[in-house]
Amino acid sequence: MGLLSILKKFKQQQGRELRILLLGLDNAGKTTILKKLASEDVTHITPTQGFNIKSVMADEIKLNVWDIGGQRKIRPYWKNYFDNTDVL
User: Which residues bind GTP (predicted)?
Assistant: First the structure.
């Protein structure tokens, strides 16, 4: 099930929040996706150290997007972010 399918499903439930986890290798574009969702400038992006969290409204659904760094030293900690995640 893709993100659009999930959004359509939850669109019927007003006030719903989704926790989205962005995982991927370093320089894969996770932070760029997050900034685009938040309508922010993407011309100057630096590598994520740890994680970034942004909340974005989309069709009356609050998207809590977690952007987790992709560096090799951070990857062993990815599993700690899975709890309560709706979309990976």
Answer: 24-31, 70
- Residues known to be catalytic: 71
- Three-state secondary structure call for residue 87: strand
Binding site for GTP: which residues? 24-31, 70
Q: Compute CA distances 36 → 28, 30, 31, 54, whole Å.
A: 14, 10, 8, 11
* CA 4 vs CA 7, 41, 57, 64, 72: distances in Å: 5, 24, 14, 15, 30
Is residue 36 very low, low, confident or very high in pLDDT (cuts 50, 70, 90)? very high
52-81 pLDDT, tens digit per residue, is: 999 998 877 889 999 999 999 999 999 999
- Which pair of structure tokens corresponds to residue 3? 């993100």
**Which residues make up each annotated binding site for Mg(2+)?**
31, 48
Question: Rounded distance, CA 75 to CA 34, Å?
Answer: 19
